[in-house]
Amino acid sequence: MKKKRLILLDGYYPYGHGEEFIESEISYVASKFDEIIIIPTHLSGTEKITRPVPKNCKVFPVVQRKKIRQVLYAIPAFTTGMVNFDGWKETLIDLWFSTSVLSLYSQVKQVLKEHNIVAESSTSTVIYSYWMFKEAAVAIMLRDKYFSGNAKAVSRAHGSDVYPQRYIARHLPARPFIASKIDMLFPISESANHEIHKIRTDHPICSTVSRLGVQASNLNAPRSRPDICHFLTCSSLLAVKRLPLIVSAMKELYKQQGKSFRWTHIGDSGKGSGGRLDEMVHDAGLSEVFTNMGRLGNSEVIAEMEDQKYSFLVNYSESEGVPVTIMEAFSCYLPVIAGDVGGIGELVKDKVNGFVDSYDPTEKSLVKMLIKAVNCSEPEYSALSQSSYETWKNMADARANYQKFTQQLLDLN
Fold it and tell me: What residues have CB less than 8 Å from 44, skipping those under 6 apart?
């Protein structure tokens, strides 16, 4: 039987923060592959490993080159097939992308050579890119050039790497190249899969939805409706998270309902950022009903979500793939109020496991959702809570989703 090897190209894991889903996924993949090579590609050289990896995983980091060194690849970049010449802005974006891909490929190739990771008749190799971006293009080049076709190249596809409206000039580079040449794409939602199949290519696009997942919580029964409706938000403070909109809506809710609710926020965007949220809340006159917990570790976030005092998670990001916080909330029987963006609508169903606002919500529409939550009866709330957990069990259970994904990787060879 052939030795099974997986090469994972990601951004940061297991360094620093981010890509938390890999933390759950990697143990399932590692249990079925003999050897896993993890190559983080977005590092500056100062980061430290902050998360454990399975025993059969080796981590070979790649430090990003300065852009001046990447320019050396500008002329060869025109010959890669990644530059589509659809317009001057699009051409420049494709050219930059192709240049950076060639630079990254040379670095990854060197790392593999240094550690004697080569094509072997006794080994089947899958090159797995966590993002449908530079890493996916590098995976294709590794398969074709470094492994001379004796490997498979696959990629997940999330949100920022799928929807062109979220990128510079509303143009994601090298879409036809990646979509037509990769062996399999694993979009994390039906919405992402639909977007991928809008890409114009001369070859069929091979894709199948492979959802992410979170572990079970410690709860085993639906929540009871708290005496005071308690909203929880859990996000960074970046503009895309629409915290000012939430503050405005909470201010209007306070005018109409007084102290009949509470609001707790988890998360920040770096040192001092939490103070800006506190200032907005103070100016809105919400200090009496608001708590800012700042950044918490993942286990601390789950422990907080399990607290029975919370009534609803609120997520009003203007762009999303499938938010981990929504899956975690559902695992904790916690209903969700959210805007219908990205893959959120596939999980959150209006009046089933929460309340769903429009794709482009307003303060007025959000206030309407919050009032529904405040006025929710005990039987209505209990049903929302139970349905939240059932959604997690059917769609976001890490064990089921990652075991299936691992088998799909194995079936490639």
Answer: 63, 64
